[in-house]
Fold this protein.
Amino acid sequence: MALTYISILLLTSLLSTPALRNTPIGPVALALLAHFAFFKTGHHAVLSFIMWDAAFIPLGKTLRYPWAPIFVILNTFGPQILCAASVPLLTLWCEPYPFPAKDSATNHELGRTLLRPSTAPSAVAGSVSSPASGQASSPAPATPLEEAQAQTPEQTRAAHRATLLARIRRDMLTHFAAYAAINVATTAWAAHLRRHLMLYRVFMPRWMLGGVSMVVAELAGVAIGMGGVRWSVAAVCGVLGW
């Protein structure tokens, strides 16, 4: 699990570039990493290969409920839980600090990112009538830079938080879609090979593993990933400016 966590950090660092930050590569790679870590740690898609010894390692030679089943579940589906809970890192890693729009240097950087060719001075000047025509010139529409400068720091931070949560939800749905695609392919091949002699020995256990892994990843992603991010963002937004 430690190597899996290190792999997640390395993957997050590689995908923190602006060209790869908003792509579905990260969530899909985390889903594939979860499957790789599951089989690399000695697990198999067979019921007889479940490591029941995990229930006795931390508790000795006695079974204590509900701790024994919890340890078996964590040992079996640890990679899926860890990768699903790490999906928000793809958005939060190296996220820039949203400074209030009061500093001139910040306004300059904000203007370079928000100003578009359609809001250039020449385009705006073309929409204003000439004074010689005798008609009152209509006010020019506000540019994105002016709208951003007109916002208060609280509004800027609230918009930034909403953007972060929307990006995390998108990455989480992409992560779940990767599991769903694997399960659809597994179901299709299990149905195609329904008369195979190894159906109940190879294909059906793999289909069962895919379904259970998707459910565990969704529960971990919603409870730990989304719930933890909303709780932590709400707790430290006033300190970090988010």
